[in-house]
Amino acid sequence: MTDKARLYLYDTTLRDGAQTSGIDFSVEEKIIVAHLLEDLGFSYIEGGYPGANPTDDAFFSERRVTKARFAAFGMTKRPGVSLSNDPGVAALLAAPVDAVTFVAKSWDYHVDVALKTTLEDNLDCIRQSVEAAVKAGREAIVDCEHFFDGYKANPAYALDCARTAFEAGARWVVLCDTNGGSMPHEVTDIVTAVVKLVPGDHLGIHAHDDTGQAVANSLAAIRAGVRQVQGTLNGIGERCGNANLTTILPTLVLKDEFAQRYDTGVTVEQLKTLTQLSRAFDEIINRAPNRHAPYVGLSAFATKAGIHASAILKDPRTYEHVSPDSVGNRRRLLVSDQAGRSNLFAELDRLGITYSKTDRRLTGLLSELKEREARGYSYEAADASFELLALRHLGDVPHFYDVISYRTMVESRVNAIGDRVVVTEAVVKVKVDQEILMSVAEGNGPVNALDQALRKDIGKYQAEIAALELVDYKVRILNGGTGAVTRVLIESLDRATGRRWSTVGVSANIVEASFEALNDSITYKLLKNGNAGA
Amino acid sequence: MTDKARLYLYDTTLRDGAQTSGIDFSVEEKIIVAHLLEDLGFSYIEGGYPGANPTDDAFFSERRVTKARFAAFGMTKRPGVSLSNDPGVAALLAAPVDAVTFVAKSWDYHVDVALKTTLEDNLDCIRQSVEAAVKAGREAIVDCEHFFDGYKANPAYALDCARTAFEAGARWVVLCDTNGGSMPHEVTDIVTAVVKLVPGDHLGIHAHDDTGQAVANSLAAIRAGVRQVQGTLNGIGERCGNANLTTILPTLVLKDEFAQRYDTGVTVEQLKTLTQLSRAFDEIINRAPNRHAPYVGLSAFATKAGIHASAILKDPRTYEHVSPDSVGNRRRLLVSDQAGRSNLFAELDRLGITYSKTDRRLTGLLSELKEREARGYSYEAADASFELLALRHLGDVPHFYDVISYRTMVESRVNAIGDRVVVTEAVVKVKVDQEILMSVAEGNGPVNALDQALRKDIGKYQAEIAALELVDYKVRILNGGTGAVTRVLIESLDRATGRRWSTVGVSANIVEASFEALNDSITYKLLKNGNAGA
User: Fold this and answer.
1) Maximum C-alpha span of chain A
2) Residue B231 near chain A (CB below 8 Å)
3) Inter-chain contact A185–B223, Cβ cutoff 8 Å?
4) What is the reported pTM?
5) Domains A5-266 and A402-457 are alike in CATH topology
6) Taking a C-beta distance cutoff of 8 angstroms, is the pair B445, B470 a contact?
7) Which end of chain A is less crowded, N or C, counting CB atoms within 10 A of the terminal residue's CB?
8) Boundaries of each Pyruvate carboxyltransferase domain copy (chains A, B) (predicted)?
9) Is the distance from CB of A88 to CB of A75 less than 8 angstroms?
């Protein structure tokens, strides 16, 4: 352990990540995210800009993290004012933080056009700002904005900025690819040049994903000698996002060439919480998780091809570059039309359904699966419907209620005072224990009305579905045109337990398909509650 | 131009991309996507596996592309059978294609465990397969599966596989990072070793994104000498996806170090269609476009920070690594709607709508467009609805008919003899020239019934819509959950002329959204027929 070099993960989700269009953190959300980040084991957590807005002022009113180093971000001293008269620097130095991160110009063009000062004065602003932070007992960090573009335009000046920051006492000088247009080999070359002037264990990298290479650029910089890497959870950030720490972290911990050389401060146990943390963060920012995200995506370890699936069952290393368990994710062998028995067994195992491999009922299940998939069913994203289907063949699914009939209607007309009104209504008649129950409800669409009516009264089971909620509804038209078939996927949530499950329905009629998925959802919930049925 | 080396873009969206969970291309969709790809200027289009399933058989029943090279994919000859007795190879050689791409094992472990044959026999399978393709007049391509992992385990054998394919006459030997776990510097090192045995202008790279570095790995391989790069549109593919050609292409065309050395066959004019093509493809696979995608994402050139925005207005290069116009995207600044106006002008020009740039009605049109887009409308894939909206502001759209009311109903019940019956019915009441017309129709779903009833009788216009047909219907739920809004896209076809057009509707109620799109479709048809209206 002691012969490894320390590598510092610096999270800027709450600062640069907050530049993402559509993302606006509240103080409470910032506090929750900061705790997620420190629990994961990141080294630095940058919380925002003190003095810039009420949210950040409230967030920096207290020391928000204890396990990680807490950092505040702001600009270096402005040209033309003295340090003591710069309100931005004053707000930064007043924040109860461990580290102060100054963004500094390092591209001569920007010093001239945006900052409107001399190159020498900009160096002086950097020097004074760093010295002030150190004097105030803070760790000083300098983010050299546009460092790579600046280096390409004027290498001597970009290097002057980095060296000035380091010589003034900055703990870290961070090389930023602000526009995100740099290539990994350029990062390698430029970092190699900088390391000759500023030691690597005082250098950091801050990359953006505008050419889809923020991760590669960050790793190239580490290989060239930097010891701090900045990024965000799930790669959020302005334009195409910042370097994705959710992707970089597992590579650093799991891939030998990095794992043998560096200690990130994140343990293998902490790494196992990564998938859950990534999804929890998406919930906070109200974004659907990226199914295809490296390491943590729902599909990151999913295999559709039958030939791959049978090889994975023999030896996972054949088609997996790391173990899904290592990041808290799981293997998924998709039950698709290319699948065979091996996929089926793996899925049954994953769902904890006991069976014997010689059970003849498995043949019936497999053939029904294939027949249904040919009709348009897809169980890849409908675990609950898959489990019900399997149990109907292999075990026993109680018969909780019968739907005698239903009707749903949408009517649009002009009322007596000339306004157009739309009425959407559904009626459902169910039988539970010989008792006939009829319910009617309105909704904002035919399926919503049907959902409301169906869940209004199922007799003795009603209390058990009180906390059930339809949280996502997806429609896909297969084939297209007049011969089209509609596939509906429904995600349900039990508000009482937080448990989620997905069901599927297929029909030429969207209402029928939806009703099938709704019924599967309710049946699944009642089954999981351990009911014996009517 | 002539001093540049030719670099070949090989698209596998329709083959490896079809391994994506949740994606199932129909034959019609494959045909549409193949045309998009050849229009973009890609060199090779791989369409699927002939002989593997009915969809691919139908797709390979004809030569589907003429501007690009058309490729079919399959396995090398199986061990233990003679070439003439291998149905997979026979199906490949029978396909009307330019190129046959064989996937071959190149990791000794897989030859042993998955293929269950000797290392020498695997080389023989490669040799015989390539020779058969060449003899059949096809270009032979060999995808060396697991090449990088194989090279790490047994470099001599991996190299043997590549050399055998090349010496047997393969036009291309493609090095595949099948599990997606390789790092760019490993790709650089290994490609450098292979280039010593197989010339770079016969080598390709096929990368996967499991560490978020498929783009970087592809570019590293090109820098190390390969001349073919495989990938998919929008990076679709199994697990975390394939190398994203939508990201790689602009880097190759726009970044000097690649642009000065290589000719991709894609012109700067074709590159300007990339953003539109990327979004059209997402519509086809019914997936919400990634707002943060490099180059083509809605936010790829969006700036939130005020300081950045004002700098961009002074000089876009300060915060943009390439021009958004170069990929057909646009800059988004919160401070200005300049981008909106220029985009609107471009759209009006494209549709051949005449206008004056000083016409004040353009302001009203732009603000209605923005307001509708905020509500969920999307005109990128609904030209006909866009044209109607524009003409309602700038010109004149006749009022052909009024819908007085409509009603649609789905009823499911058990009939007198105990069978479950579903009845779906709609009634529409329209007014044409003071005449009230009422129609009723059944359908296989509420929207289909409504469509049938609406088109049953619109009086004097009826003959003109006789050949109109609804050929595609797509539904997307925006937001999700209870606050969801439904967007419906309808594609219509006039069987008499072959002309197709697309319309959009948005509402909390799927029936209302569909009805809006249906009405736009009929109105558009009547307008294009030159009717003056009621």
Assistant:
1) 89
2) no
3) yes
4) 0.75
5) no
6) no
7) N
8) 7-272
9) yes
